[in-house]
Write a structure and sequence with these properties.
Length: about 260
């Protein structure tokens, strides 16, 4: 005699297994953050994302030999709801001159992840697939998390007192003594005269060939005036790009400006 389960019984057991898997699903509270400026620290990321809720941990992936950031990391929130809001608000956000890429990383027992589908929302990881993902991220985060211009344009603009100006100079072309101080004074004096009081200004000499200048105004209205007047303007044959910078990121980079 051969005894087998009926199809109805098989379906019932399959449904029970699916419900059991859902019951042990880990909350979706861990975010991948990519396309980061290499100078940003874990403390910088914490200050930016903690405005959405309590954070349990922040990790930036670093090169084992040099200790240099690989340009991506992970932020884990205490609550999944806070992680979802941060995902919606921060994906494509201009952070220190780069549009960061934020995706949700979830863990479901026994579910395999397709590492080539590029879909970051609801990415499911087992121990094996997590290792594969980390190896792929170490090679490049660009293929996993592409951000189109359309997606970036839909990202909300957060107004702050702080600005990042790009393409203000090319450090390889500057030869005069104290050229960085001359640029700083020129920018500060012009902004003071045209847009509002500048409380701090700094020239990032070694940060990028794009010629970054950081400015902190006394009021948001002043920074708005500066963006309107400087963004898209030509300066010494270069097209200036002016973007808002989160104040906590500015203060983390220039601690002397914290109380200004």
């Amino acid at each position: 005699m051969i005894v087998q389960r009926s199809e109805a019984e098989k379906n019932r057991l399959a449904e029970q297994a699916a419900n059991a898997a859902k019951s042990v699903e880990v909350p979706h509270n861990r975010l991948y953050v990519g396309s980061l400026q290499f100078h940003l620290t874990e403390n910088d990321l914490r200050q930016v994302f903690e405005s959405f809720g309590r954070i349990d941990s922040v990790i930036i992936n670093k090169d084992h030999e040099t200790g240099r950031s690989n340009g991506f990391g992970f932020v884990q929130f205490a609550r999944a709801e806070d992680a979802q809001i941060a995902l919606q608000q921060m994906n494509g956000f201009d952070l220190a001159g780069r549009n960061i890429k934020v995706g949700l990383v979830t863990e479901k027992g026994g579910t395999q992840a397709d590492l080539d589908d590029g879909d970051v929302v609801g990415l499911s990881l087992t121990q094996q697939s997590r290792a594969e993902l980390m190896a792929k991220l170490a090679r490049s985060d660009r293929d996993l998390f592409p951000v189109t211009n359309a997606a970036a344009s839909q990202c909300p603009v957060v107004l702050t007192r702080c600005l990042l100006l790009k393409n203000m100079f090319n450090p390889e072309e500057e030869t005069e003594p104290n050229w960085e101080e001359e640029i700083r004074l020129d920018v500060k004096q012009e902004c003071d005269a045209k847009y509002g009081k500048v409380v701090h200004c700094a020239v990032a000499v070694n940060e990028s060939k794009e010629g970054h200048v950081y400015i902190k105004f006394d009021m948001i209205t002043s920074s708005q005036n500066a963006v309107a007047g400087l963004n898209g303007r030509w300066f010494s044959g270069k097209l200036i790009e002016a973007t808002y910078l989160p104040e906590n990121i500015y203060n983390a980079r220039y601690p002397e400006a914290t109380l200004l």
